[in-house]
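Course assignment 3, question 2. Fill in each field.
Student: A.L.
Task: Predict the tertiary structure for the chain below.
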Amino acid sequence: MKKTILALCVAAIPLVSTGAEYVTEGSWQVKKEENKMTDMTDVVAINRSPDVYMRQGIERSTSIVLRCREGKTDAYLSVDEYMGIDDPLITIRFDGGKPQKRRWSAAEGGEAAFSPKAISFIKDIS
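Answer field:
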């Protein structure tokens, strides 16, 4: 019973400090926080596209999100609409290069798609 209570208490401890603010670095909004459970720095970087599009009469936007949390790196595309539960085919074009189609993993809520090779993707865009 004591182990169960201890586990519940530990699970209730916030994993990151509060109050971290996003800072603008070029076209990115970046937030860095110390993870209190791992003493590692968690980082989230968001690049919101200045281009918006209309779908069903609603203005929508797209963002690229890069995240390193607890030593795991993610890169995903976040959109303001439901893409479905199947892994979407994402078209990417770097600078003046040829557009490339890549299959990404659908997020649970259907409004994001994760790069299967986050670190390679980050290197491609840097």
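Instructor remarks: The two ends are 51 Å apart (CA to CA). Residues 1-18 have pLDDT under 50 and may be disordered.
Grade: pending
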